[in-house]
Amino acid sequence: MPARPELIVALDVADLASAAALVEQLYPTVTLFKVGLQLFTAEGPRAVEAVQQRGGRVFLDLKLHDIPNTVAGAVREAARLGVEMCTLHASGGRSMLQAAAQSVAGSGSPMRLLAVTVLTSLDSRGLEEVVGSQLDVAAQVVRLALLAREAGLDGVVASPHEIGVLRATVGPSMRLVIPGVRPAWAATDDQRRVMTPHEAAVAGADYLVIGRPITAAADPVQATGRILEELRAAA
Question: Considering only CA atoms, which of 205, 163, 212, 177 is closest in space to residue 191?
Fold first, then answer.
């Protein structure tokens, strides 16, 4: 049985006060929090600092995708913020991924870089619209994950349905950060390829990213407790 994955609570909220309140409610039961596009666009680096000031660690999920020099500069700044993990799109290509990895290595930071493979909101039809031809989602995820490994990244972000095939192809050292995780009692919202926390844990995820089932709950502390109990049962 794999080790129990760590829970990352996604602070997908609109302002610093809401994010800070969630961290204060959930820490130290949860210590790792996602700062994503909405919160970072609204509040910038202050959002990262707010989590850190309350004892939390930060997963900076900005899904960077630009020319290599620009992405290298952006991850260098993320490293200076002291975040634990940062995301970029694997579809940015080998040169972009390598430039990012070299930038972090040169900074001396322990920050991990994670490659986003195929968004959990995309199914086969959605992927076909993006790339212009029919592709198997799992095959595309594996292809991009192997590219990320070759470029020197530390892990990948993928749907729970790809955990098994990823473990078989990229091995145990690559960290698997898994969004699209929904407890059986929560709505799936705009996610397409989902699993429950128990299922994702048994499959071998390293981290589970969960947002709305916790942050939109009437009682976020209680919702977190239910999810952690489900993960304990899977260990």
Answer: 212
63 tagged catalytic: yes
Helix (H) or strand (E) holding 60: strand 57-64
3-state secondary structure of 36: strand
The CATH code that applies to domain 6-234 is 3.20.20.70
- By DSSP bridging, strand 207-210 and strand 175-178 are parallel
Close Cβ partners of 139 (under 8 Å, ≥ 6 residues apart): none
Domain spans in the chain, listed from the N-terminal domain onward: 6-234
Tokens of 137: 């989602």
Say which residue the tokens 């976020």 belong to.
Answer: 220
Per annotation, catalytic residue among 54, 63, 143, 167: 63
Whole-structure pTM value: 0.92
DSSP lists the bridge partners of residue 99 as none
Rounded mean pLDDT for each run of 10 residues along the chain, 235 residues in total: 84 96 98 98 98 98 98 98 98 97 96 92 66 76 96 96 94 94 74 80 95 94 95 82
Whether 61 and 34 have beta carbons less than 8 Å apart is answered as yes
